[in-house]
Amino acid sequence: MYDVVVVGAGPAGSMTAKTAAEKGLEVLLLERELEVGVPDKCGEFLPSLQEMRRLAPDVSDLEGLFDPPDFCIVNRTKYVKFVFPNEVEIAVPFQGLVIERKLFDKHLANEAARAGADVAPLTRVVDLLEGGRGVKAKNTDGAIDIPAKTVACADGAYSLIARRAGLPVSRDPLDYGIGYQYEMVNVDHDPYCVDMYLGEDIAPGAYAWIIPKGDDVANVGTGVRPPYMKE
Length: 231
Known about the structure:
Blueprint: E1 2-7, H1 11-22, E2 27-30, E3 45-47, H2 49-55, H3 63-66, E4 73-83, E5 89-99, H4 101-114, E6 118-120, E7 124-128, E8 134-139, E9 142-153, H5 160-164, E10 178-184, E11 193-197, E12 208-212, E13 218-224
Parallel strand pairs: 1-2, 1-9, 2-6, 4-11
Antiparallel strand pairs: 3-5, 4-5, 7-8, 8-9, 10-13, 11-12, 12-13
Helix pairs in contact: 1-4
């Protein structure tokens, strides 16, 4: 029996697995996809470690998430520009990192494995065992039960495991967003500036973005709140 089963190998899950393994616990990290970090569901923009220390001075252990290795970083930005519906633009100095999420997530999962955690891809958790003492899952061999003393939910905002455990999970559609993003080339844009576009005509309830990944490559996308989709 594992001490801890972590459901979901995103950044939160991998960091949880790594920390628990470093404490000497027997840890299993489960990921439903074949490849950790794929598909990417992120604009791939992070505050730099310097900015996070300024924004959250009382939080320790920021290095693991906000100081990724160089091979994960594709660009370093210097500004965030907010573009308002009345065409007012405000550029704010802000040191940021643009990363390749598929590399970053793999790096964190590898760090968990190096700390001693077992990592199991292509394993989809479908329920908790009775009493929450582990999980029911499906992998390439079929249905399996994985007993554990503790289950950590890191399976997303609308966590199946949290719901199965009776933990509060919001069902308010305003608490969720729907996004569309493409990695585009031939983008004529300042590579040091992240653009955030606000306004009901562009992204009702959320924002649109241009996040430069290099001289002419950028993540371009938009998000909306579900109640405003018809607009």
